Amino acid sequence: MFQITRSAPVYDVVIIGSGAGGGTVTKVLTDLGINVALLEAGPMLNPAKDFKEHMWPYQVPHRGAMDGGASYFGHGRAFGFFSAHAGGWQLDGEPYTVAEGSKFNWFRSRIVGGRTNHYGRISLRYADYDLKPYTRDGIGTDWPISYEDIAPYYDKTEAFIGVTGSKEGIRSAPDGVFQKCPPPRVHEVLIKKAADKLGIPCIPNRLAVITQDTNGRPACHYCGQCGRGCIPASNYSSSQVQVFPAMKTGKVTLITDAMARELITNSEGKVTAVSYIDKNTRTEKQIKCRTVVVAASCCESTRLLLNSKGPGHENGLANSSGTVGKYLTDNTGFSLGARIPALEGMPRHDSDGMGGAHLYMPWWLWDKKTDFPRGYHVELGGGYGMPGIGSFAGVCAQHEGYGDSLKKAIYEDFGTHVGFSGRGEMIPNKDTYCEIDPDVVDKYGIPVLKFHFKWTDAEYKQVEHMEKTFTDIIETMGGTVVKRDRPVESKISVGGDIIHEVGAIRMGNDPKVAPLNKYCQANDVKNLFVADAAPFVSNPDKNPTLTIVALAWRTADYLAEEMRKGNV
Amino acid sequence: MSLSRRSVLARIAAAAMAGPVGLEAAQHVHEAAAAAATTAGGLYKPKALTQHEFDTLKMLCETIVPGASKGSAAEFIDLLSSQNPEMAQIYTGGIAWLDDEMRRQYQSDFLAAKPEQRTEMLDKIAYRKNRTAELAPGIRFFDWARRMTVDAYYTSAAGIKEVGYKGNRGTKEFKVPQEAIDYAVKRSPFA
Lengths: 568, 191
What we know:
The complex is a heterodimer. Chain A is built from twelve helices and 17 strands. Chain A is globular and about 75 Å long. By secondary structure, chain A is an alpha/beta fold. Chain A folds into two domains: 6-55 and 75-121 and 124-162 and 236-321 and 502-568, FAD/NAD(P)-binding domain (3-Layer(bba) Sandwich), CATH 3.50.50; 171-226 and 332-424 and 456-491. In chain A, helix 1 (20-31) runs parallel beside helix 6 (238-248) and helix 4 crosses helix 12. In chain A, helix 1 (20-31) links the parallel strand 1 and strand 2 (36-39). Chain B folds into two domains: 1-42; 44-163, no CATH class. Chain B is mainly α. The chains are: A alpha/beta, B mainly alpha. The interface between A and B is large, with 81 and 71 residues.
């Protein structure tokens, strides 16, 4: 047998990150017959083994409290033991720092599919005016693209991944290619009646869940456990819906446990290789590429560019504008819940449904005057959730006592609560950004990010408005809100908590202020593309994943065309 | 992961792939696995607590939630205590406090006391409003015991059934019973 020695292969495209952005680019390029290498910082995902779908709490000795009852002490996995993510707010050996006076939490999920394995699957299109915020109210910056540029990609995305919804003709919530949304649960029926009375639109939810068989994936079976991961893939995750099918084409070289460290450039300023740490051996390796797509998540992509320093780009790659790391935002968050007496004693039934609400409220005051810019949408909670650790902690604290009366109180309380969560637009500000912390490296020796974060009056006033709205809805439904006087700073979510980080490597028309052009191609480095939420110019009141997928699709189409023309 | 759990998971995964899972079937598999796990070693031998502490806890759990033993509440607490000194301290300290206080008042520890003496004590420490310097540790302990007993029971097959959770099953079409809608609307301000 001859041994053939070859030089290291050069991949046409190396994609860094397998989440919504990287998964999409992988799918689109392999569909076009292009070979790609896909780097993922975490391990391979095996849904049948890793997902805890349908598991009852009593199937684990700790019932979900985790070893040593970690959840009772505020430790353990974020979103609980049963959640599908492989990560959290803190990762062992992979720190980040937060500047004095700032608060910021950074959620990372290191696994094939990233955060799409567990995310909320709310899939909302940006409105036409969302992409032109400066034109509309003189604040922030317009996107270099308009709704018409992205709409065809929203269409393709919705048709491919599957999104529920209904045609409503509401300007703040553009209609799309929808599958039928299941009917509202009882508490949602009441919420809608309250919303109707208050003049707030409350419409079928737009979730990346399929309610009809789609591309070989079976329709939802309504167990309500999307967050645990769906073994039959009836919801969207980039792992199951894009990466795994793409791998079947034989055109994907997946390299797991590969933590990208630096992009290596040649004298012409083009990326020639990606340097990464093989986590299993803690050794540095390089993979050669003709083009690179960075889709490591908004902040992780920023970190990679800032850590890629060399002659002519001492402040990081693709950063001649000096804006990489700037204009970082999260969505605002505020939640309020209450018990609804009308639901007490209702005949018990299965209310699981999709893993999320069946209705939502799009922003309704977009053409009205408010004392804050922009808006928010409202997500709903309630129903008979599967009992778990802490499900009745509230009853215990309120009722106290013990014995049959406590049991009765628990029985009566079950399924009577509703919750409202607002997710709103944050305006980019100069005090919110990330940079490389010169003093700290992670366990692989890679310099870490340092976060600076500040909410402003724009966000505080919005959150006050949310509180008033939710209170009105609850009271209209016959519930009572326990009034608590507390400063607005303690009402609003901590930066990063909503896990909608966007910005930091913006697209734009002017290379002097924007690192990327309107196709998310780096102005300084023509064979470098960014395909996650980092290119976003603003952070509208809509969850970002649908737009990440749509924009990544557009970028991948452009990249393929540029490759065909020989431009990259 | 134990073999039995692995096989249960495999069955669930297979069921998920195959389509809707019947609640009865799923529950049966789960209960069989849970029962096998608890009875495998015969009588439960406490891992963190002494036999006396465990017996005391068991009685306390049963008083907090009648039927708690069906949810293996004391075993749940003992297991987590065996993995976490902070948790163990809450329970060994709390039970010691309870016995001391019982002896001081009734010359008998919690287990050996008369039922009405136990009730008298619990009626004090089960409410925040009774908080005094002397009772504070007992109230704090009872709060832990109540929370965890409730969690153990209502995450067990018996508790889940009792509270009336009907989900975690597959269904081809999601429907909301009209009688439930009518019931709630009739009782709401929208009637």
